Amino acid sequence: MNEAEALYDGAPLPVGSKGRLSSGWWGMVTLIATETALFAYLLFSYFYVASHNGGAWPPGGPPKLYLAIPGTIVLMLGSVTMWWGEKGIRAGRQRQLLIGLSASVLLGVAFVALEGIEWSQKNFTPKTNAYGSLYFTVTGFHLTHVLVGVLMLMMLFVWTLLGYFGVRRHSTVAIAVMYWHFVTAVWVAVFLTFYISPYLAR
Amino acid sequence: MANTDALRVPVVARPADDPSIALRLQRIWETRAGWIGALASVDHKSIGKRYLVTSFAFLILGGLEAAVMRLQLAQPNQALLTPEQYNQLFTMHGVTMIFLYALPVLSGFSNFLWPLLLGSRDMAFPRLNAFSYWVFLFSGIFLYASFPVGRAPDAGWFNYVPYSSLAYNPGINIDLYALGMVLLGVSTTVGSINFIVTLIRTRAPGMSINRVPILVWGTLTASVGNIFAVPAVSLAFFMLWMDRRFGMHFFDVTGGGQPLLWQHLFWMFGHPWVYAIVLPAMGIVSDGLPTFCRRPLVGYTAVALATVTTMVLGFGVWVHHMFATGLPPLSLSFFSAASFVIVIPSAVGVFAWLATIWTGRPQFTTPFLFFAGFVIVFVIGGVSGFMTAAVPVDVQLTDTYFVVAHLHYVLIGINVFPVVGGIHYWFPKFTGRLMNERLGKWTFWIMFIGFNVGFFPMHILGVLGMPRRVYTYSDGLGWSTLNLVITLGAYLFAFGVLLFLINVWRSLRQGERAGANPWNGPSLEWATASPPPPYNFAVIPTVGSRYPLWESQMTGQTGESTTAEGFLLDDGRETIGTSVLDAVPDVILRMPGDSLAPLLLSIALVVLFIGMLVQSWWLFGAALAASLLATIAWLWPEARLGQTMDIAHE
Predict the structure, then answer these.
(1) What CATH number should be reported for the domain holding residue B490?
(2) Percent of chain A with pLDDT over 90
(3) Which of A142, B140, B200, B650 is deepest in the core (most CB within 10 A)?
């Protein structure tokens, strides 16, 4: 078995779901790839409609930033707290993970609340015009992703309390946290498109 | 085995020395008897066969639709069908063949074959595999739900707005199509993710990336293409549904929307999709031809790279479907040039197959005839595609029968011929019995002649100016004779398909029993029994070359593959995980067992889509809650899978 001996030196192999060796980690990477494509097509639709629009864009002038900027900061903070919590479990500190998860869930909910306030203050609806359809659909898609992320973090909280994770086993945490960071990163793209690009185009 | 550590040295065994190994693995991996066992099964071989049978059922449905249309068109001024019925038939024919047959049938091959080709015991995500099948099945039924009441989707398979807008198409039919496609997109996406991760994780030790079969390259490329392309069409259909049912304005000019946005999103998906439904089929040929030419594929590396290149370029040619829409000339020139460039990687494949046949010792078996016939048909379809890539020619030919001829040469030529050849080739592996060769050869010649008689005249009809999608035509335009010939050819082709089905039916019962390797094939699937046991391989094979089973027969071959000795991995359902490029063992993967969760989640998801279709929001909410609960139950960390602190070893 020369071929086999050249391939494998007989050292013990990890068993089961372990970090980047787990199928789930790669599954999440590919899921994020396809979701990134989804948001790319959403933003493509926005720019396509914007560039073919004859009149003022956005029709009611650039959106105000007084809720969107705090929302962006809140979501980014939620990624930082989660990064800190994950660092804790890597060192075996369950308490740190629980605190990080709680903080990120609260910040995620705060983002949803800020977005809800902003939606209720808009003087247009999805039916008003193509801009309205795009605005509510794209931010709505993102909001759904935040809610899914919050649900995932809540499940992690329950599973941490049940003692499932520790210094040796935390790939489930790493996989869910990757999704949470993705939700933040997508928001940055949505924010730059809807809130910043109209100011640059003026 | 009281090993409770998270690390283990896998046991190496020789199954020939210990018959109890097979019994033990059989107990671990077999699906429970009875219908609950069948519904809960996550065995990739069952799922692959289900994909094949279901997609052939859709092929027959789509074929019957075509048969009725050809009767209507056999003579001028026929009144067999009303225009409305004709619209529904050509729409459902396209939807069925392109979405419910062409990719799912290749998923069937790949699901069945991948773990066998890769020397693994299952796909990376067995439960996701079952889920993707159930969602495919249910979305197919969903798309057909309004057919029996005579209100099927009728705006063509590419469903252009404003034909498909509420104002011009007020029924539930377009909503069914829109939501059905979003649902089918879920199946395609999770299936593609499964293939990608399977390739990355579960190849046998030594099966480095430059040793995987071309079928694996084809399906991998298609899957990567899908995860980037499918979101475009799912999004487009979702937007259309919101335009129609929530008064939004994505595609509606009166609200500042853009009808052409639909075409862009559709073809950004649509063109990569064409490659997704042909590249794995080309892989079938690239792996099958060497067996019958008794030599390795000429230009393995070039063919593998051409496969990937085709898909990459395929993302940059979507506008060639829109040459007649009034886009700026600069844009047309760019996309025309890109479409010409794609000929290069396609030709690489053609020359590799020709050289393999030329320099080999061909055995004229049924699979060989289908694979060689494919090469001829592909060249004709490729040349007509090259012609329409030129903007002035396309402007003349677009929406004529020339395009119908081109797309059928491409789809039947590159998909159906390799698929039917592939069924003849792997039938012994699927069932343990060989198909009848005599009947198989008759099948090939009748299908090949019927196909060319049925579709080649369409080129001429297109040049004569017959538009596609017309339900009838007047006498005296010079189209009548050709149309009659086409109908006769189409029926001859259909008769060939019928012969094939008869051969399958008879061979299942009376076919000659096949050993492990009836064709003397080179790849790992032929190393295990026909049909394979639930665990595929008693020990994980070690791979030392591209053609592991031919090492002793080929001169100058130095690999040292073995299936006689290897990792046993019998501590529950396990397989080996290896590194991405070199396939060096780096983890023992624990595989989930059979489960009803995939089926339950699929049912909840279908109910959710029905809630959206009939706009019953309590139904939608209940199904959403059920879907979330099913997902949480599915993903609950299991000690058995090594996802929590304690790993219990049996």
Answers:
(1) 1.20.210.10
(2) 80
(3) B140
Residues 629-648 of B with CB under 8 A from A: 632, 635, 637, 641-645, 647
Do B378 and B254 share a structural domain?
Answer: yes
How many CB atoms are closer than 10 A to CB B313? 20
| ipTM summary value | 0.95
Dist. CA B296–CA A18, nearest whole Å: 38
Cα–Cα dist A173/A159, whole Å: 10
Whether B560 sits inside 8 A of A41 (CB atoms) is: no
Angle A89-A93-A95 from CA coordinates, rounded to 5°: 105
Number of CB pairs, chain A paired with chain B, less than 8 A apart: 201
CA dihedral B528, B534, B540, B545 (to 10 degrees): 40
- CATH class name, domain A18-50+65-200: mainly alpha
Domain ranges for chain A, please list them. 18-50+65-200
- Chain B stretch 559-598, residues whose beta carbon is closer than 8 A to a beta carbon of chain A: 559-562, 565-566, 577, 583-590
- Tokens 């001028």 correspond to what residue? B76
Q: Which two tokens mark B364? A: 């004229």
> What domain range is B633 assigned to?
597-641
Pair of tokens at residue B640: 């058995």
**What's the pTM value of the predicted model, to 2 decimals?**
0.96
Q: Give the model confidence (pLDDT) of B34-85 as tens digits.
A: 999 999 999 999 999 999 999 999 999 999 999 999 999 999 999 999 999 9
Nearest to A23 among B124, B544, B585 (CB): B124
Distance, in Å, from the CA atom of B643 to the CA atom of B631, rounded to the nearest integer, reads 16
User: Is A168 in contact with B249 (Cβ distance < 8 A)?
Assistant: no
